[in-house]
Amino acid sequence: FGVVLIFRDITEQRRAERTRAWLSAIVESSENAIVSKRLDGTVTSWNPAAERLFGYKAEEIIGQPITRIVPPELHREESAILARLRGGERIRHFDTVRLAKDGRRIDVSLTISPIRDDEGEIVGASKIAADITARKTMERELRDAERRKDEFLATLGHELRNPIAPIRNAIELLERLPPGSQETGQLSAILNRQVRVLARLVDDLLDLGRATAGHLRLNDEEVDLAQLLEDSITSIRPAVRDKNQTLAFAAEEPGLKVIGDRIRLTQMFSNLLRNANKYTPTNGRIEVRLARDNERAAVHVCDDGIGIDPELREEIFALFFRGDGVRAHPEGGLGIGLALARQIVQLHGGTIEARSAGRGLGSEFIVRLPRADAQIFDTDVARRGADAPQSRRRVLVAEDNPDAAAALAMLVRSMGHEVFVAHDGLAAVELAQQVRPDAAFLDLTMPKLDGHGVARRIREHPWGGAVRLIALTGRGQVEDRERTAASGFYRHLVKPVSADRLHAALTDASPSPPQDD
Ligand code: ADP
User: Fold this and answer.
1) Ligand 1 centre from 258 Cα, in Å?
2) Measuring CA to CA, which residue among 196, 206, 314 is closest to residue 264?
3) When comparing pLDDT for 161 and 67, which is higher?
4) Taking CA atoms, which of 45, 118, 295, 325 is between 20 and 30 Å from 430?
């Protein structure tokens, strides 16, 4: 009888020990800071995550008052917390700020529970602190975006209403005038101008909506840049004349061509020109320069107007961003022109940047677009790829539908990668052999050799093992995925593929799951 009892005691003791070891392992390995303190605020335990978050080693802070990590102005908060704990209350998700050893302020979310001894007496408290700095930053950014959106809607209302008053007046007058009089001519000129303003606003808004949703469809034609710039300049001439400004255009190299959408590109350059005209006082000077820049064509749009604060050089491209002075500016716009311009340029595989020596010192916008004759197969670009930063990849696009291939190439190029295009399976294998890509998007149904065949041939080469193969197909059944996996594909993407998924397929580092869409 006695033996059995002792035996059971030992088992229970062992079990308790094991539980304790288990619990302490959980605390030690937790990602959240876990701290305990007595009811007088003295720290009694401090796990490794707390060391990482607050910067104090356990031996430095155990035995010290918890107020070490409480900002001075929040000491009162700590007494209130201790009082609630004494009453047996549990405090959940209490967002506050704590001080790290180096004085940094950290946004934390606390959950604090009373600790009771065997008799049920409250003797202290355990505290779990989660670092919510990232969440707080995001909340601030969201509030910012929200504020900009509200401002945008208010401005939009204004901008849309502005042309309506003159239109309504003109129509009323027209109804009263005898037909064919001199005034009717003037009035219809007003109507024309104001309706154009409205139409432009609506077009920009629609394009912006499409661009942000990823549905902006681009034509793919060869465009002579000098010709295109002439067209954009013609559209802005009247406004330039109104402000008595001069506008000079210099094409340093004739015949520079790009592949792209004529209408969007004209719209983009017109936007830059309209800004130059708007943000430059009367009698100012605007200059457009077209030049070759290695494998790209560069367009400079310069003015000697109000200039840009160097700190805002990037920010002006944000959606709905409008400069301080601009809000009061009679011609101030909606803050979408540059955001749209950047989208359009990026969809063409190009870049846009702003330069200015400062306020009042004029501005320069530089658009760089890949030259048509250097787009695919540029050995210069290929060679330079070797010392380019890691994130720039060499990407093979194999797709027989020329439109789909061009769109995909443009998209991948806009992500900063080098792109090589092939239109059938055999050409794809040959091109891969030549350029040794880091990744390849392979359409599964191609003439001459299908995507599976291309994948297998690439994998046969010693360099082929390192190529990230991504299948593009209309079919996403389990059997289809199993087949692409068997052919050595890393990803199986079902068309239509969004930019996000393309990007993820190219860059994500996780080896699993190898198959998704
Ligand atoms: P907006 O409709 O306000 O002109 P944009 O997106 O075209 O919107 O431009 C954003 C902001 O960039 C403008 O509000 C202005 O502050 C600044 N900006 C753009 N172009 C110029 C320029 N040529 N000179 C000075 N500031 C400019």
Assistant:
1) 26
2) 206
3) 67
4) 295
Please give the Cα distance from 444 to 485 (Å, whole number): 13
**H-helix segments, 215-256:** 225-242
Alpha carbon 235 to its chain centroid, in Å, reads 32
Per-residue pLDDT tens over the stretch 461-502: 888 888 999 998 877 777 888 888 888 898 888 877 777 788
The finding on whether 273 has its CB within 6 A of some atom of ligand 1 is no
Q: Which ligand 1 atom is the nearest neighbour of the CA of 335? A: 8
User: For the segment 219-255, what is each residue's pLDDT rounded down to a tens digit?
Assistant: 788 899 999 999 899 888 989 999 999 999 999 988 8
CA of 334 to the centre of ligand 1 (A): 9
CA of 326 to the centre of ligand 1 (A): 8
User: What is the chain's length?
Assistant: 517
Identify the residue whose C-alpha is closest to ligand 1 atom 23.
276
Distance (angstroms) between ligand 1 centre and the Cα of 296 equals 25
What angle in degrees, to the nearest 10, is found between the helix axes of 133-161 and 182-213?
Answer: 160
127 within ligand 1 shell (Cβ under 6 A): no
Question: The whole model's pTM is what?
Answer: 0.51
276 lines ligand 1 (CB under 6 A): yes
Q: State the chain's mean pLDDT as an integer.
A: 84
At 144-190, the pLDDT tens digits run 788 877 777 777 777 777 778 788 888 888 888 887 788 888 888 88
* pLDDT value of residue 142: 85
Please work out, in degrees rounded to the nearest 5, the angle formed at the alpha carbon of residue 446 by the alpha carbons of 442 and 452. 55
In short, whether 275's Cβ falls inside 6 Å of ligand 1 is yes
| Cα 152 to ligand 1 centroid, rounded to whole Å | 14
From ligand 1's centre to the CA of 330, what distance in Å? 13
Query: What does the alpha-carbon distance between residue 470 and residue 452 come to, in Å, rounded to a whole number?
Result: 11
Ligand 1 close to Cβ of residue 208 (< 6 A): no
272-306 residues labelled b (16+ CB within 10 A) or e (exposed): bbbbbbbbbeeebebbbbbeeeeebbbbbbbbbbb
Q: Ligand 1: which residue has its CA nearest to atom 2?
A: 333
**Residue carrying structure tokens 């002579």:** 224
Q: CB-based contacts of 510: which residues, under 8 Å, 6+ apart?
A: none
SS3 270: helix
Task: Specify the pLDDT at position 129.
Answer: 92
**CA–CA gap between residue 469 and residue 442 (Å, rounded):** 7
